[in-house]
Design goal:
The complex is a heterodimer. Chain A is mainly alpha-helical. Chain A has helices at 7-53, 70-76, 79-98, 101-111, 117-129, 132-142, 149-156, 171-196, 200-206, 213-224, 226-241, 245-251, 267-277, 281-309. The longest helix of chain A is centred in the first third of the chain and has 47 residues, at 7-53. The relative contact order of chain A is 0.12. Residues 7-11 of chain A have low confidence and may be disordered. Chain B folds into three domains: 2-143, no CATH class; 179-304 and 463-489, Periplasmic binding protein-like II (D-Maltodextrin-Binding Protein, domain 2, 3-Layer(aba) Sandwich), CATH 3.40.190; 309-461 and 534-577, Periplasmic binding protein-like II (D-Maltodextrin-Binding Protein, domain 2), CATH 3.40.190.10. Chain B has 23 helices and 19 strands. In chain B, strand 5 and strand 6 (104-110) form a beta hairpin. Classes of the chains: A mainly alpha, B alpha+beta. At the A-B interface, helix 1, helix 9, helix 10, helix 11 and helix 13 of A face strand 7, helix 5, helix 7, helix 16 and helix 22 of B.
Chain lengths: 313, 579
């Protein structure tokens, strides 16, 4: 159509069209600008700086010098880094199970029409809302070997008290306990939302066919929840790998070790210690980028694996 | 159901194709799909076309062939009653290729009556053999998948901010010292900081601030007290120093000194001290001033000191018919042997009572015990580790013995609460423990000097006020510092019970001794001459050193390594922490 029209006639609508597009673009960009600036200043620029710093010997004070890959080499030959990596891996693997399976069970129970379910939903969600440091300090009392309530109960049953916070063997288990306790409520709410999206017709159709409750759970609930489960697994894993506040609030000592014999030391507390206690900003930045690569790889693997078991409707 | 409303709304908004024509199936219905929820969904368009879109989902675990054969093929047809029948019959193939593409089975249906959807969706759709699970298919899936990826990526990127996020300068207070030139009189503002442990301590420092302002009013100096919380105190301070908005005067712990001085953050006070005839440096304890001196320069003045003493529960000693540490000390018989004897007699596992207690950290644990055994964590020049000497290892062995015999509670701060509850007979701690005992202890208690090991020893804490090297008005900062460390001011802080004045002039000492209980305040002062001082590691990093040693020490007291291994490994692993 435009090919046939004379040039003089088509020029005006075209320009008007263009200027309207430009105006639209300006409007849109103007509205996005605060967000873009925020992301730029508080996210992308620090990100770029930290990437640069990871190749320098930057300390808290003074000018940084470029030192190539030294920081990365140092991390890969640092036993403390490996200890933190191992702790993080062990912590994440256990927590991934301990904070999702009970969450799903709770969600299924609290999705039923039982008396007081709103109350219980709120109860299980409270740990999520509560301040991490506050409740972790409470846990320090609960888990105390001499006067902690948990050990009081253990003693009642005639067992030896467990040195939750005072032995190198139990340190990480305590972190798993407290972290999972906080995370279960959150995962439960996500599962609940997913459960409410499962159409009741499926259960209605399945029960005349003779499916038991357990079979319904296994063949309807679990597959229908798979996107939710996937989301929960991805976010929980990332949160596990980045865990900071629980081990620090639970185990930080005056010597800045995390738990007895550094048994609660995971990768982000190590990063923090290197940056703010040791003052090695460059090295800490390199640790951060190593962690980034690890999380990226694990998340990509999760996405790849998810094709086998996650069903999007 | 979501599908209805959204599709209709899309139509009303003109976004929906007015005449879908021959476009059937789910592809043409994509615009509404983004907002849909998980359900069997019915799409309604202007032409009243209804499309039932069904996807078979197999459970992921049922991948075996036996299960596959259970899945029925599936087709839809309309019956005369206006409802939809879905037929299935057993088939060894997954789906019948005539009605389904891959795992997606589309059943398109046209009708003018919307009620159709409700009847068909309410459970009449049956699969005869085995499990048929339905869900709609549409672009919603894709969108959700992308959203998820973005959430994951964002959460991921947030990690990186852990490195630099904490580094964002915390703005707060006034930026440095500001000399505001008024019309007639020039006033200088000096901002200073401590780390009060509680509200009572903060009130004392606020009173101190008023004292400074009263004294320096004539000189046109205004002091502003800017306390910072315990948690993150040093992160905040260091970040502010790097950003150039730190206070003019601030308190730190003695061991932190080298970190601050080596990076050029701290003002040398020597010229100011020399120029000020009204100031007597000899009023301060010389061994503390020595630690603040480096290459003839003096970096700061001590705010307070504290030696370690034995807090003991007099009632428990009396009940067991034992001499108290104070009595033993008076006899000159207060040493590791008598301590061990008392600790064993006063330990009662059945009653959860311990004879001894101390925090598991450098001061009362490896600092005191290794020094009292005649060893030291450091070589005399403090440029190397000496934890592997026989004397140092003796100290470690002593502590291992105490833990092995379960004479003390494990953990760091637990013992404090247990002592206050009357469950620990002797507890090693500094002066800062006194206010808590005063408030909580429901028994008679007192303090005594630390028991003698191979040599007399205790551990001495101190913390200086430092002057920021970037302060705009050094003279004004000096005037404020002088008042803060004066006998009057330190006596005021000492009266609170938390600190010992850093100076030996009578006014300050008397104020301290008068702050009772404990009756035997003198025990704190007795240890000063022979105490091992917390000291900066000028040619290395105290933070790195103490972290490595503490970690190995924990393994040692847990029985994972021997005291000898502790000494050896500590010195091997800390080599890199010295320059």
């Amino acid at each position: 159509m435009t090919k046939q029209a004379p040039a003089a006639l088509s020029a005006t609508p075209a320009r008007r069209h263009l200027s309207r597009r430009v105006r639209l673009w300006i409007d849109a960009f103007g509205m996005l600008l605060p967000t873009i600036l925020g992301v730029l200043i508080f996210f992308l620029v620090p990100l770029a700086i930290s990437f640069y710093l990871s190749f320098t010997d930057a300390r808290l004070f003074g000018e940084p010098n470029l030192i190539g890959f030294n920081n990365y080499q140092r991390a890969l030959s640092d036993p403390t880094f490996y200890r933190a990596m191992w702790n993080t891996a062990a912590f994440s693997m256990v927590t991934l199970v301990v904070s999702t399976v009970p969450a799903l069970a709770l969600a299924v129970i609290l999705n039923e029409r039982i008396a007081g379910r709103t109350f219980f939903r709120a109860v299980f969600f409270i740990p999520v809302v509560a301040s991490v440091v506050g409740v972790t300090l409470l846990w320090r009392y609960l888990l105390n070997i001499d006067f902690g309530f948990v050990n009081y109960v253990i003693r009642l049953f005639g067992f030896e008290p467990i040195p939750w916070l005072t032995s190198p063997e139990w340190g990480l288990i305590s972190v798993i306990l407290v972290f999972s306790w906080k995370t279960i409520g959150y995962n439960m709410v996500i599962f609940l939302a997913g459960l409410q999206g499962v159409p009741p017709q499926l259960y209605e159709a399945a029960s005349p066919d003779g499916a038991s409750r357990w079979q319904q759970f296994l063949f309807i609930t679990v597959p229908m929840l798979s996107p939710t489960t996937f989301f929960v697994l991805v976010t929980t894993l990332i949160n596990c790998l980045q865990v900071f506040d629980v081990p620090v609030a639970l185990g930080l000592t005056r010597s800045n070790t995390i738990g007895p014999a550094d048994s609660m030391l995971t990768i982000v507390p190590l990063l923090w210690r290197e940056a703010f206690i040791g003052g090695r900003m460059g090295y800490a930045s390199a640790l951060a980028w190593l962690l980034f690569v690890i999380i990226l790889l694990l998340t990509l693997i999760q996405f790849r694996l998810s094709r086998r078991w996650v069903h999007y409707e | 159901m979501g599908g209805w409303g959204i599709s209709l709304a899309a139509h009303d908004a003109g976004l929906w194709p007015a005449h879908p024509g021959d476009r059937t199936g789910w592809e043409s219905l994509a615009p509404g799909a983004g907002c849909s929820s998980v359900a069997l969904r019915w799409w309604i368009v202007r032409s009243a076309k209804i499309v039932l879109d069904i996807k078979f989902i197999r459970h992921p675990l049922t991948t075996g062939t036996a299960r596959k054969s259970v899945v029925s093929n599936f087709s839809g047809s309309r019956n005369d009653a206006g409802t939809m029948n879905l037929h299935s019959s057993r088939n060894n193939n997954i789906m019948s290729p005539t009605t389904c593409r891959s795992a997606t089975c589309d059943v398109a249906y046209r009708d003018g009556t919307p009620r159709l959807s409700m009847t068909a969706s309410s459970g009449r759709a049956r699969v005869v053999d085995g499990w048929g699970l339905f869900a709609e298919k549409g672009t919603a899936t894709m969108l959700r998948k992308h959203t998820l990826s973005w959430i994951a990526l964002m959460a991921l990127l947030a990690t990186l901010l852990a490195a630099c996020g904490g580094g964002q300068p915390t703005t707060g207070g006034t930026g440095g010292s500001s000399g505001s030139t008024g019309g007639q009189q020039q006033t200088v503002t000096i901002r200073w900081r401590t780390r009060p442990g509680d509200a009572a301590e903060q009130r004392v420092y606020e009173e101190l601030n008023a004292l400074v302002n009263e004294k320096l009013k004539d000189k046109g100096i205004t002091a502003v007290y800017d306390p910072a919380p315990n948690q993150g105190y040093f992160e905040k301070l260091k970040t502010e120093l790097a950003a150039g908005n730190a206070p003019d005067i601030f308190w730190i712990g003695g061991v932190e000194l080298a970190d601050f001085v080596n990076t050029g953050q701290i003002l040398d006070l020597k010229p100011l001290i020399d120029a000020d005839s009204s100031f007597q440096l000899s009023n301060f304890y010389p061994n503390v001033i020595e630690q603040l001196t480096r290459d003839g320069k003096i970096y700061g003045l001590p705010r307070d000191i504290s030696t370690m003493v034995v807090y003991y529960n007099e009632d428990l000693f009396k009940a067991a018919g034992l001499k108290t540490p104070k009595e033993l000390a008076a006899e000159g018989n207060w040493n590791w042997n008598t301590m061990l004897e008392a600790a064993r007699k006063l330990t009662d596992p059945a009653n959860q009572q311990y004879g001894l207690g101390f925090g598991n950290w450098w001061g009362p644990a490896w600092g005191y015990f290794i020094n009292a055994a005649g060893g030291s964590p450091f070589t005399p020049d403090r440029r190397g580790c000496a934890l592997n000497t026989p004397e140092s290892i003796e100290g470690a062995k002593m502590v291992r013995l105490l833990y092995d015999e379960k004479l003390l509670p494990a953990g760091d701060a637990d013992g404090e609460a247990l002592f206050n509850a009357g469950k620990v007979a002797m507890y090693f701690n500094g002066r800062w423990f006194t206010p808590g005992v005063r408030t909580n202890a429901k028994f008679n208690w007192d303090v005594a000097v630390m028991p003698e090991g191979k040599v007399k020893s205790t551990w001495l804490f101190w913390g200086p006020y430092l002057v920021n090297a970037k302060t705009a008005n050094t003279q004004a900062a000096w005037e404020v510092l002088k008042v803060l460390t004066s006998a009057e001011a330190t006596a005021k802080v000492a009266a609170l019970g938390t600190n010992i004045p850093p100076r030996s002039d009578k006014a300050a000492v008397d104020a301290f001794l008068a702050s009772t209980p404990p009756a035997n305040n003198q025990a704190f002062l007795d240890g000063i001459p022979y105490a091992a001082l917390e000291a900066p590691v000028w040619d290395g990093s105290w933070a790195d050193f103490s972290g490595i040693v503490q970690s190995l020490w924990d393994q040692m007291i847990a029985g994972q390594i021997t005291p000898e291994q502790f000494g050896q490994q500590a010195c091997e692993q800390t080599t890199s922490t010295f320059k």
